[in-house]
Amino acid sequence: MVCLKDPLVEKICNLYERISKLENLNPSKDVDTIFTQLVHTCIPPYPIDVTKLCPKIQHIRNKLIILCAHAEGLLEKHFSAILGAIANSNPLDHLYLFPYYSNYLKLVRLEFDLLIQHCPTPTRFAFIGSGPLPLTSIILATHHLTNSTFHNYDIDGGANSMAEKLVKSDPDLSRRMLFHTNDIMDVSGSDLKEYDVVFLAALVGVDIEEKNLVIEYLAENMAPGAILMLRSAHGARGFLYPVVEPRDLRGFEVLSVYHPTDEVINSVVIARKCSVSTVDHQGFGSMMLCSKCGEIDQGFNHLNNQMNMIEELAVEEHL
């Protein structure tokens, strides 16, 4: 079992102690510096399985993911406020001010290329955990899926208000991008069945138990054949984000899994909602059965060269 005797774990724990002592996690030189050190520590390939951490280190990992999520949220709010305060102009014309906008362009293009291999003509998206700066939805809507509708869900009404402010001055996007302040677990099955694609943000469910509850709810309520896209992590990067394994996607046929080996933080998983359902009588709730569940197509690993310049979300970019 991995513990503090591991040099990488020891270094990460030391960084966690420094981060936990910061007065706040608002964007600043000190915050940027220490999170950059953390990410650079976690990026290199390293033979570690975060599921085998001892309880003490697992506890630290869980708290570290929460801190990373909080820092990412503050960074997005900071830049969303800057963009929203630009007078007499469409804020979307100034997205380049966000320091990692070019990286988002590359990442979303890659995810789009991956998606259309399995869903060539998606028209209705649900993005769960869109936040105050919904760059993924905005880039998909403006560059790749110009006739699609995007329903953005976030539990934070303030974040939704900031995001809505960014798109309201654009006649096209204000019509095609809608914002809902909801816990996704409270969204009805009839609503979820309307979507061709459901995109689950990396930090919706900061521990695997919570994330699995969301995945189970989606498995019960998404339309058969609909696509679930989610971001995960692999190896030491699991200290920054929750790890979702294919076996966690009960009720889905796993279509593609991509684990980067360069500076890209997040793994990408695409799965299809299975069409046959039965009830599990062993106390685990409803299960969706599919003869191909667990099959993984690694076909997009040939895109590794395209991924080399991509950083995932703001946390790993400024972090």
Low-confidence stretches: 278-289, 291-319
Helix % is 40-55%
Could you tell me the mean pLDDT? 84
Oligomer: single chain
Kindly estimate the percentage of residues that lie in beta strands according to DSSP. 15-25%
EC number: 2.5.1.43
Family: Belongs to the nicotianamine synthase (NAS)-like family.
Protein name: Nicotianamine synthase
GO molecular function: nicotianamine synthase activity
Task: Summarize it.
Helix content is about 40%, strand content about 15%. By secondary structure, it is α/β, with parallel strands linked by helices.
Mind explaining what this structure looks like?
- The protein is built from eleven helices and nine strands.
- The protein has 319 residues and is an alpha/beta fold.
- Helix 1 packs across helix 3 (55-84).
List keywords for this structure.
319 residues, alpha/beta, seven-stranded mixed β-sheet, 11 helices, 40% helix, S-adenosyl-L-methionine, Nicotian_synth, EC 2.5.1.43, SAM-dependent_MTases_sf
Topology:
Layout: H1 7-20, H2 29-42, H3 55-84, H4 101-116, E1 124-128, H5 135-144, E2 149-154, H6 157-167, H7 171-176, E3 177-181, H8 189-192, E4 197-200, H9 208-221, E5 227-232, E6 252-258, E7 267-273, E8 276-279, E9 286-289, H10 304-307, H11 314-318
Parallel strand pairs: 1-2, 1-4, 2-3, 4-5
Antiparallel strand pairs: 5-7, 6-7, 8-9
Helix pairs in contact: 1-2, 1-3, 3-6, 4-5
